[in-house]
Amino acid sequence: MRTFAPMFGRPLATATTFAVGCAMVVGAGATPAAAAVGGPTDLTTAGRACEAQAPGPYLSPVRLNDANAVVLRGTYSGTPQSADPQADFQVWDVTTPDAPQQWLTGLAPENNQVYIQLEDPDRQRHGITYAWRVRVLDGADASPWSGTCYFTIDRIGGPAPDVASVKYPSGDWEHAGGAVGDAGSFTFTSTSDDTVSYQYRFSGADDEYAEVPAEGLGGPATVTWTPQDASQQSVSVYAIDRAGNWSERNVYEFWVRETRPSVFSSAYPDWSTNLDYGVGVPGAFEFTSNVPGTESFAWRIDGDGPSGSVATGGDRTVTAMIAPTRAGRQTLYVRSVTADGATHPERAYTFVVDNAPRVTGDVDRYVIIGSSLRFHLAPRMPEVTSYLYWTRDYNGNEPDEKTVLPAGTDGTADLTWTATSESTQALYVQSRSADGTLSEPRFISISVSGASPYVTRSGGEVVGSTATFTARTEMANVAEYEVLLNRDPSTRQVLPAAADGTVTFRYTLTKRGYTYVTVVARNAAGVQTTEGGTSWSVTDSPVVVSTDFPSSGSGKFAPGTFTFKPRQLGAVKYTYQMPGAEGTVAAAADGTATITWTPSDAGYHTLYVKSVTADGAESLQTYYSFYVAPDPLTVTSVSPASVETGAVRTITITGSGFHQEDQVTVTPSGGTAIVATVRSVSADRRTLTADVDLTSAGVGKASVSVRPDEWSDQVSLADAFSITGAQALRSVTAPAVTGTVAVGATVGASTGEWSPAASAYTYQWAADGTAISGATGATYVIPASLLGKRLTVAVTATKPGYASGRATSQATVPVAKGPALQATVKPTITGTPRVGQTVQATTGTWTPAADSYRYEWRVGGELTGTTTKTLTLTAAMRGKAVTVTVVAVKAGYANGRAASAPVTVRA
Description:
Blueprint: E1 41-45, E2 48-49, E3 58-59, E4 70-75, E5 86-93, E6 101-106, E7 113-118, E8 129-138, E9 141-142, E10 149-153, E11 162-164, E12 184-189, E13 195-202, E14 210-213, E15 221-225, E16 231-241, E17 250-256, E18 262-264, E19 283-288, E20 294-301, E21 307-311, E22 317-322, E23 328-338, E24 347-353, E25 358-361, E26 366-368, E27 372-378, E28 384-393, E29 403-406, E30 413-418, E31 424-433, E32 442-445, E33 447-449, E34 454-458, E35 466-472, E36 478-485, E37 493-496, E38 503-508, E39 513-523, E40 532-538, E41 543-545, E42 560-565, E43 571-578, E44 581-586, E45 593-597, E46 603-613, E47 622-628, E48 634-639, E49 642-644, E50 648-656, E51 663-668, E52 674-675, E53 677-681, E54 687-693, E55 700-707, E56 715-724, E57 730-733, E58 737-738, E59 746-749, E60 753-755, E61 760-767, E62 770-771, E63 779-781, E64 791-798, E65 805-808, E66 822-825, E67 829-830, E68 838-841, E69 845-847, E70 852-859, E71 862-863, E72 870-872, E73 881-889, E74 896-899, E75 903-904
Protein name: IPT/TIG domain-containing protein
Domain IPT/TIG: 634-715
Signal peptide: 1-35
C-alpha cells in the first residue's frame, strides 16, 4: 500500500468560520460546484470501522503504531481533475464544534484512498472525544463531506489494581495461609472504571503474562493458582483499559507454607555420586516432616521403581533404607501422611545411581601430545565382559564409533590411551555386560599439551642475510620437523630430528617487512604437535654511524657528521630529516654518504633516513636517536657593573650554556631573591639578557644565579653588580591650596613643579600639621571639625626609574565659618489664631540642613520673650499680628534667620 506524508497543521486558506456537526457542510454555506469525485466512504478510525456515535472507540496513540498516531482512512469514487487534489480532513472536539482542526494531505490515486496520521499530541489530548470527517478538494471544486466518525483519546493506564486472597494473604511468613500444592484464589480489583482485563504473572512462571477478562467494564477478575514452591511468592498485576493502556504495576507478595518433607542422603546425594553405592545397594534416606501430626511417609522412585512407606514412630525425622533397582538419574518422591490418612504434596528428590566403572591410574590426567595415559578399569556392575571408551573435544564433538576394550575374567581391564589432539577435553569409559547392558559412562577430565615447538633465531634482520633457527619440542620421541617461511609452500622443509630431539635450519631473506617461520613436529607414529614459530622484521633501511653523535652516550653541542651505509641493493641517494635540517644527499661510489649537522638545541633528537634507488624505490626508514649534551653552564660576568634601584632594569650576563628557558634570579645583599625575565639568548649561547624589577631593591652588591631547570643545580656569581640609589625627583615650585578656606567649601591642591617632570602624584591633607585620615585626593571638602585650623597639602611625585619626591604647601588662613544657612522654605505658624489657643511654629527647610533651631515670637512687632516652638495667645494679643523668627544653627556655619508670615489674633 502506498503511504503519503501528511501536511500536519496546515492552516485554512481563508478566514471562513466553520460550524461543524454530523453530516453538516462546512464553508460559506453554498453547495460546492459539481465535483469529479464523490464524498469519501468506507471510513476507518485507527483501523476500526467508523462509529457514528460518540464516544466511539477509545484509543491510546502510543499503542497504535510506531508513529504514535491515530490513522484516519477512507476511499472516494471518481477521478480528480486537478493536478494536485487533496484530502481535507477536519477533526474537532465535540464540545467545541465551531473550532475544527484542518489536516490537508495528498491523495493516493492508484486506490482512491484518503489517509492522514494525527501525530500531534497537543491536538489529540487525553480524555477528549473527537469527531472527524473528510472531503476531496479538486482544484476549485470540492466533493461532499463524508459521514462523521467519533473516537476518544485515552493515554493513561491509571493506578495499579488491588489484589486480595483469602488463602494467601499478603504479609510475612507468620501470615502464610496455604501450602505447596494447595490451590488458592486471587481477586484483582481495578481502581479505574474502564478496565477490561488484567495481565498477571506469578513468581517462578515464564516471562509471558497471562490475561484474564474483567467481570464487566471496570469490574474485578479472579484467578486460581497452585503454588509449586514454598517460602515467599508474588504475583505482578496490571489493569488494562479499553484503549489497551497498562496501569501501574502492583506486586502482591505472600508466603506459602512448606508441607513437603525434607530429604537427605549421603549414600545417594543429589549433588554428586557415592561410589560405595549402586544398583541394588540399600542406602539411607532421611525424611523430615514439615506437617504436624505426620505418622508416616509414602515414597516411590519414578513411576515404575520401588515404592513403600515408613512410620515416624512419633519422630519428626526417620530413616528409610532404599535400594535403587536401576542405574542412572532418577527421582525419589516422598509425601507426608497424617493420622487422618490425609496425604500432602510430594517432595521430588533427584539423584544418580552410579554403576560406571571405577577408574584408577594416571589420575593427574595431564599429558603431552603423543604420550599415553594408563588406567585400570574395574567393574561396578555384574558380568562385565568389555569396556567402551571415547573422547570429547572442547566443542562437544565425539567420534561416531566407540573403541571396545575386552575385559579379563575378573571383569577388569587396563586401558592405555595416547593423546593425538590438543583439543581433547575428556575421556569417557563405559562397561558392558554379556547381555549388552551398558553402565553409566565415567567422565575422565583430560588436559593435553600441544607441545608446540619453541623456536630461536640468530641473524636474518637484513634483506639478503641468512637466518639460522633452532626448534625443540616437549613431545617425546620426535622423528621429524616440518618448517615453512611465511607459509609459502615453496619454502617447506621436512627435516629429521637430531639425537637430542632438536632441529636446526636456515633461510636466506629476500623480502623486507614482517617475517615469520612456522614449525610442527611429528613422532614416528605420525602424531603431530600444534604449530610453533617465531616472527621478526627484515629491513633494508640504511645504517647510520656517527662518532660525534653516538646512539649511546652523548654528543657535544657542536657541529658533527653522520655517515649513511646502504642495505638496499642499488641505492644511489639518501633522504633524511632531523631537527633544523632535511634534504637529499647522493651516495658515493661505495654507496655511503655523509652529512654535517649543527644542533640547534641540546637534548634528545631523532634522525630519519631512507635510501633510494635510481628508479625511485625507497627503502624502509631508519630511526636514529641520539642525545646532545648541553654546553656546561657558566656565569662569568654581568653588565652594567652598576644599576640604579627604583625600576625594571635590563642586565646582560655572559658565560656559556645559556637557554631561553633558563631561570635567572638576582639577590641583593641582605635581601630576597628577585626572579628575572629572560629576554634573549645569543646564538652561541654565551650571552643572556634579562629584565629584573629593582623597584624596591636595596642598594649594595647583588649576586646573579642561572638554573637550567627545576631538577638541575644553579650556577651563581657573587657580587655580580652593584645596585645604587636612584635619583630623586626635586620640587621646583611648591604645591599650593586653592579655593575658599571655609567650612563646607571644596579646596584643591596644585601639584607644583618638579624636576624632572613627574608622571604621577599622590596627596595627603593635614590640619595644623596633623594628617587628616582618608584625605588623599586632589580636592578636599572642609568639615566643621576643622573650623579655625590651618590646612596644608603634601604632594608626593613619582616617575619610573626615580626616587619619589615630596613637597608640602604653605598653611592656609584659619578655616572660617561657612556661610549662613539659607531657608529654602520659610517657617509658618500653624493652629487657630484665637485668644486662648496655642499656635505652633514650623521650622521651614534649610540648606545645608540645620543641627538645631531657636524661636523668637513677636506680637505687634515686639519680642514676647517666648523661645519655645509654641505660643499661647492671650486676650492682650487680640487684634495684633503675631510672627515667629526661626534661627537655624549648624556647627561651623553662620546662623540662618527667617521669619514667618504674620497671623492676626481673633477674639
